[in-house]
Protein 1
Amino acid sequence: MVIKFVHIFVIVCGIAWCKGQECGGELDPEEYSLKNPGYPTEGNMESKYPSNTDCIWTFSGDDNTLFAFKFWDIVIEIGENNSNITCDYDFLNVSVTSVGSQLFCGWVKPEDAIVGVGSVYIHFHSDDSVNFRGFQASYSITTDFDPCDPDPCEDGECGRTEDKLKSLCHCNAGSTGEECEVDIKECDSNPCQNGGSCDEPQKDYYTCQCMPQWMGAHCEVEKGPPCASDPCVNGGICSETEDFDFQCACEDGYIGKSCEIDDFPPCFSNPCQNDGNCTDISNPAAATSDEENEYITRYNGYHCSCPPGYGGTNCDTEVGCGNPGIAYLKKRRRFNTGSILEFSCENGFVLIGPANLTCVADETWSEKMPECVSNKTLSGDNSLSPYASTMIALGAALSVNMVVFTLWMVYRGPWVKLIRRPSASTSDSKQNIHSVSISVSVMDDDVFEDEQNYVTEDQNDLESLSTRSYSSYSKVY
Ligand SMILES: *[C@@H]1O[C@H](CO)[C@@H](O)[C@H](O)[C@H]1NC(C)=O
Ligand SMILES: *[C@@H]1O[C@H](CO)[C@@H](O)[C@H](O)[C@H]1NC(C)=O
Ligand SMILES: *[C@@H]1O[C@H](CO)[C@@H](O)[C@H](O)[C@H]1NC(C)=O
Ligand SMILES: *[C@@H]1O[C@H](CO)[C@@H](O)[C@H](O)[C@H]1NC(C)=O
Ligand SMILES: *[C@@H]1O[C@H](CO)[C@@H](O)[C@H](O)[C@H]1NC(C)=O
Ligand SMILES: *[C@@H]1O[C@H](CO)[C@@H](O)[C@H](O)[C@H]1NC(C)=O
């Protein structure tokens, strides 16, 4: 009979009871039972744990690893002064990450199971004397533990309680309840004061419509008299409206709720420079209902008609052509687009190049400026004797030496080239004569700045002049 019992136990033990977990090692999730070595068996009811023994069982897990442990039996040497807290001699230390560690000894079986998540560390220790049968317990390990699956929270984030065993809903603003199933009606608490009305257009959002004299998020602030803060600037005069607002009567040239927009209407402080004329082309019909937009639309609505020689939005840019190279005109003289300059030469001189120059676009003349060249130079007829030539040259050199030099320096640009041009038949190649005469076709919008200034500093070198056309200008170099 006894033999048969032992037989059965050996078979059971061989299948599940005490498989390889006798003293420490990794806890097997497939198992469910744990006991110390030497725990009594059917065959040896008096068995006790050995002395000086340390068995350590572990299991490495995380927040998704649920561990549960429950004693079936415990008889372990109790600690000094019969303390089952200090467990000074023999003990079982059960430690789970989320729970912490607990020591067990004595003979009172704890009724509560140990339940936690994370890694597991179980340590059985015996000292060198006083041994008992030890402990036996069942345990379970679940590795896919997740209290948020399925997610119980209706309007919020699912988290865990402090012991990490249960779900805990962190509700979105505007919701409450264990599963965030309750919508908070903010307006129910009458947050708007002083007769303001409350509106909750969406979850977790409400606004207060205050009575005219009140303001603030909850209509808790009483407004002072609307004009007390002098809201009208630029000399505007403030008055109170029926709905406790202010109204500004603005001075001329200002507009806006507080008269803060100046230069209105658009031509009020004439934006057109250089004597341009301003026209208000505001289009109030295009203005939107938005007051400020209306001001801006109107403000932009002006047009400048510019005097000859000026262009741009505000007549602030010079337009037309500059001096094409006429020596005795100011360099900055400008001509309107379309102006025609007609060139001609003194008797005895021949015009080389186009007679008419047209200002075709800003800064651009149709052709290069022509030049006047002595008929003699061209024809090669040197009628002067070498003596006469020499005397003329000498005389000229003596009398106008300084002037010529200065002029030569000033006007050498286009002229130099001509002076230097070698003359095939003239023995004295320096004796070239130039003459140019310009007359300007009369156009109403010619850009002569003013007729008196038409002549440059070198007025002396012009033999005669009239307001609109120039008679011949010649110089012997
Ligand atoms: C045990 O009790 C004795 C006497 O009451 C005391 O002197 C001793 O400090 C106690 N030991 C502990 C560990 O509490
Ligand atoms: C310790 O012993 C007391 C009774 O002596 C018992 O009520 C208590 O549950 C025991 N505690 C543990 C952790 O075993
Ligand atoms: C029990 O085990 C835990 C975890 O390893 C350890 O921190 C603690 O010190 C142990 N307690 C004792 C009394 O050995
Ligand atoms: C501006 O208006 C005045 C008066 O109507 C006129 O004489 C003048 O020519 C105008 N100037 C321009 C640049 O349009
Ligand atoms: C130059 O312009 C004037 C006036 O437009 C014209 O009478 C004359 O024929 C033109 N001369 C030449 C060479 O095109
Ligand atoms: C140059 O002068 C001669 C007479 O001196 C005259 O016959 C001729 O036509 C002139 N040529 C030009 C291009 O003016």
Protein 2
Amino acid sequence: MDLPNSLYSFAVVVNAFIVKYDMMQELSLEEIRTKAFQFHENNTVWHFHILTPKCKFNKKSLYAFVLEGEDGAQRFIHYSKLPPNDLGKELAPLAHKSKVLDQKTTDVDYIPSETIKKIIDRARELNQQSIEWHHHVTFPGCQFNTNNSRFTLIFEDPETGDTIENASEKEPINDLKQIEPLFYSQTKI
Ligand SMILES: [Zn+2]
Ligand SMILES: [Zn+2]
């Protein structure tokens, strides 16, 4: 089959994504917690994701906690009926090496981009309506990152199905300090 180059590249990327996703090992939440602390103690690069049942990266209609270590070379997943937000809250400051749940620690000269402002406004609106939403930060090497050398903050709008994305060269710590407290203050999650 003679595919145009761009289509062929797209097919390769999609295929790589599927292969990577299928490689995730299922563990209990406690085992994932232990692994995350091991990564932290060994100074291994790691991060995690909470996937809601509506998440575009989720294959099941359950919540999922995804842990990735060593630039995505190690990947673990745990599915649950209830949102795994307690572990998320515990691990978020470790994963980002910063007090991302504390808006008061935002840099004084921080000015959010227009895209980030849009995410914050929409998150507040959804919280007021008690509509569950979530976001991701894809790190370099992350299986969900299509922008591989950069960090991307992805907000998924549960009502429209749209995503709002903000890519940055540095980890978006100040942005997270606005968004993470909103995420964990949701009544449903
Ligand atoms: Zn998602
Ligand atoms: Zn990831």
